Fold this protein.
Amino acid sequence: MCGLWVAYLLTHLEQAVKWLETEAAAALDRGDYKTLLRHRRSVAMVLIGFWRGFRGDELARLTVENTKAHSGEGITFFLAHTKGDRLHEGTTFQTPALTMLCPVEAYINWITVAGLTKGPVFRRLDRWGNLADKAIQPHSLIPMLRRIFKEAGLPEELYSAHSMRRGFATWASANGWDIKGLMSYVGWKDMKSALRYVDAGVSFGGLAAKAAPARLGAS
């Protein structure tokens, strides 16, 4: 059952990203910068949210200054505080570049088209498509996700900010991650949270673009 769910989830993710990329390319061709912005942001938000297992509040607090991306290698995020960071020391999260549905390329494409050099990674876009200086509101993520999946022809009611984290944990479990690897990667301090998802080490199921470096350095 787990394998079927994972295949179903990745199929939906791939379909949504394919639709967004097609729409972004069409917007670029016709010179529609504001639509291009929206779709590039959506691709980055969906792929980073899924592959990192981030909650809405964590996506909203990502900053360009504390994100380092290397095309074909990986991406590093630093959050000054997280739910499990009781000592307030801050937490660094890393994700490798992937051969498909790559969060690294999605991030680079987004900040490039948006011209971002500092401040929030994921910013508000008003109804006219203008990019704000302020970050998205965490509570706005669920409506955004549902709109994205609905426009891509998918059942939007199945998706929420929580389902991104749950979906990644289910995928990781199906790909042989052990509980310690999953807890470390997602940032869980409470084993009960991870045990809800783990059946069983950290594997990206053959999707990794290259062998993970010992450390993802700053650029």
Q: What stands out?
A: The domain at 2-195 is CATH 1.10.443.10 (hpI Integrase; Chain A).
